[in-house]
Design goal:
The termini are far apart. α10 packs antiparallel against α11 and α10 packs parallel to α15. The strands form 5 sheets. The protein has a 6-stranded antiparallel β-sheet, with helices on both faces. A 5-stranded antiparallel β-sheet has the order 2-1-5-4-3, sandwiched between helices. It has a 5-stranded antiparallel β-sheet with strand order 16-25-24-21-22, covered by helices on one side. The chain is of the alpha+beta class and 693 residues long. Keywords: Hydrolase.
Length: 693
């Protein structure tokens, strides 16, 4: 919606004249009467000043027609104005009305109507009324003292004057002198220009001389000094009176447009205030959205620095967190805190952050003198203050406490290389920003603590190390994909069987959290027990099916790949339970996926099968979870094809080292994708035979 009266402007986000809080906050105490009508002529909003026109409370006006509340003369004026605006979409200004108060006193008002434009035309009409009772009384006194101008003033509200062809005063203008306070001799000697505001006089005088030279109409506006030493706005129009081709005199009329100018200025100030409020609201909403996405303290600090630079135009921004046990602030990004003696600041050391934390209130220092005074009051050494101010380019500072449920978490510091006037509205915005930052810091601190605990728990369920076996090299990689604190269900294991062969397994319990971790622990332990008792893969999977049916919920999905390999020769067997096939990598960089039945997840009624699987000397078998090959942008089939092709890019030294090979595969498979699942990879490498062998 545009707040202009004649030219529509684009809608400003966040502004809505129907917002009751905004209306009450900005308009309720306005010194002018205000009303807003919908296209049907019903009241939508009025302020308390408007009720002086009607004598009715604010709430009685809403959704009513003027005729239901107002006297006939006032209703006629408003209805006519609303109809005219609906037809012409142009403002109507300076409508005079008179009302009578309950005590019988008459009040005089100047009323103006302004259309509000929307995308489809006029969407409503705003009424502005100014109480001009005092001016009206003055005008009536002037009318009584200047009878010969009464008719002209009453009908046109203009001051008429006459000048000679050269522009000098030709005769007295009592009405003009009554307003300006000029004496007759002064007016005849210096004329009307002597009462024009000094800033407006050069332009006015030049325009007047140009009109005299060209004998053209003179139209101008300027401020005029009044008898009371104030200034009022006038518009002037003067025309030459020509007889027989010669200018015989100039006749001018001045119109007092002060009420219109005041209304325009008020409307401009209101528009500026609404625009500034909308901008602050948008900036706060943007900062809140960014902070909501930040999970770690480091990310929160980066958002705060960005907001300080973009929303506040701050030259330096910093964040410090409170260590309550040591009574210190630990600065997270010390580069933004030049007045800090180090990364840890004792709360007894006065600066804007410690003062904010100690007082639980914002600290605003708009200039070096203001900062000096506040630091001295806080007990800072004047020599240290002078030294800091001498070596810094900062000239204004803001310190904001980070408070959560009344508990101090730390402080924010913003500084500027110029003095900074901080208005009450700016202060409200900064406090709201600090509140959002405090919530984000508290959430990030909790996340980091719980995430670390979750990772520790998950890793505790996995083997600390793999067995060292002659004739075989084992390697693994595990990369958590959870951005949250929940534990994943990926797992791996490798151990030596009683006959000297090595069992290797990678499994995936679908889901996150303690439930998935507990299921992973049960299946891993059961698989070890079954493998050590009866190691063939088909027998182990059959036993796991029985364990799964007895211990796990029916909707739980668990997959795994299990293989048994002979060290040295690489001969072995393989069984899959709904898991992706292993990858066999040759010394020449050829990657082949084992072509075998994938089987069904654990717990599904099926006859388990095992297949011969050989890892020839010099080759490497890779077991992996689906997080390596599948994500939101890449399907499983495409991921498997890409996995085989990536092997061909590996250099020879990578192919001969299982640890380097796993790093190569993980980095290349995740490159360009956002990791959204755990990635578990286990390599079984059989070294090439040597001459001694």
């Amino acid at each position: 919606m545009s707040a202009e009266t004649s030219v529509p402007r684009p809608r400003e986000p966040g502004l809505d004249i129907s917002d009751s809080d905004l209306f009450r906050g900005v308009m309720s105490e306005a010194p002018f009467a205000f009303a807003f009508f919908d296209p049907d002529g019903r009241f939508v909003r009025v302020n308390s000043t408007f009720t002086e026109l009607t004598g009715h409370p604010v709430e009685l006006h809403l959704d009513r027609q003027p005729a239901e509340l107002l006297p006939a003369d006032l209703t006629t004026l408003i209805d006519a104005a609303l109809r005219r605006i609906a037809d012409e979409a142009l403002p109507i200004t300076d409508q005079r009305i008179r009302t009578r108060a309950e005590n019988g006193d008459s009040r005089h008002w100047t009323v103006s109507f302004f259309p509000l434009h929307g995308d489809d035309g006029v969407i409503g009409t705003a009424l502005f009324g100014v109480d001009v009772t005092e001016r009206q009384l003055n005008e009536e006194m002037l009318e009584r003292s200047e009878e010969r101008y009464r008719s002209l003033v009453e009908s046109q509200q203009q001051l008429v004057w006459i000048s000679s062809p050269s522009g000098s005063v030709a005769e007295d203008a009592p009405q003009w002198r009554a307003i300006t306070g000029q004496g007759l001799e002064e007016y005849l000697a210096h004329g009307w220009l002597d009462a024009v505001h000094p800033d407006d006089r050069p332009g006015t005088e030049e325009a007047w001389r140009e009109a005299l030279r060209g004998r053209t109409m003179f139209e101008w506006s300027y401020r005029v000094r009044t008898r009371a030493s104030g200034y009022r706005h006038f518009e002037v129009r003067a025309v030459p009176i020509v007889r027989h081709g010669r200018v015989v005199e100039w006749v001018g009329a001045n119109t007092d447009v002060t009420p219109q100018r005041e209304a325009e200025e008020m409307r401009g100030r209101l528009t500026d205030q609404l625009g500034a409020a909308a901008l602050r609201t948008a900036r706060l909403q943007g900062a809140t959205a960014q902070l909501a996405e930040a999970l770690t303290v480091e990310q929160v600090v980066q958002v705060i620095i960005d907001v300080g630079r973009t929303a506040l135009a701050a030259d330096h921004s910093s964040v410090a967190l409170l260590d309550p046990d040591r009574a210190t602030l630990k600065v997270i990004n010390s580069g933004g805190t030049p007045d800090a003696p180090g990364e840890d600041i004792d709360l007894a050391h006065p600066n804007v952050m410690t003062m904010a934390v100690n007082s639980r209130r914002p600290v605003f220092a708009e200039s070096p003198d203001s900062l000096r005074a506040q630091l001295v009051d806080a007990g800072a050494d004047e020599g240290r203050i002078s030294g800091f101010l001498a070596q810094t380019d900062e000239r204004a500072w803001v310190g904001l406490p980070l408070l959560a449920a009344g508990r101090a978490l730390g402080a924010l510091r913003f500084s500027f290389t110029r003095t900074q006037k901080i208005s009450q509205e700016d202060g409200v915005f900064l406090e709201a920003l600090a509140g959002q930052c405090a919530l984000a810091v508290e959430r990030a601190t909790l996340f980091e603590r719980e995430h670390k605990t979750a990772e520790t728990l998950q890793r505790s369920l996995l083997p600390e190390r793999l067995p060292v076996v002659r004739g075989m090299t084992l390697a693994y990689r595990f990369r958590s994909g959870s951005r949250h604190v929940q534990v994943g269900g990926d797992w791996y294991d490798a151990f030596v069987l009683q006959d000297g062969r090595v069992a290797a397994v990678v499994g995936d319990v679908m889901g996150k959290g303690v439930k998935a971790a507990a299921g992973m622990g049960r299946i891993r332990n059961a698989m070890r027990a079954l493998a050590l008792t009866n190691p063939p893969p088909a027998a182990v999977l059959t036993g796991l099916d029985r364990v799964f049916e007895a211990t796990e919920e029916e909707e739980q999905v668990t997959t795994l790949a299990y293989m048994v390999v002979e060290p040295g020769t690489g001969e072995g067997t393989l069984a899959l339970a709904g898991h992706p096939p292993p990858l066999l990598v040759s010394p020449q960089g050829v990657g082949l996926l084992h072509e075998t039945e994938p089987g069904t997840p654990l717990g599904w009624a099926t006859s388990r099968k095992q297949f011969r699987f050989c890892v020839p000397p010099g080759h490497t078998a890779v077991l992996y979870s689906d997080g390596l090959v599948e994500n939101r942008k890449r399907g499983l089939d495409a991921g498997l094809r890409e996995l085989s092709s990536v092997v061909a890019e590996a250099p020879p030294e990578v192919l001969s080292s299982p640890n380097m090979l796993l790093d190569f595969l993980v980095d290349h498979m995740l490159s360009g994708y956002e990791q959204d699942d755990d990635v578990t990879v286990l390599a079984v490498h059989v070294p090439p035979a040597t001459k001694s062998d």
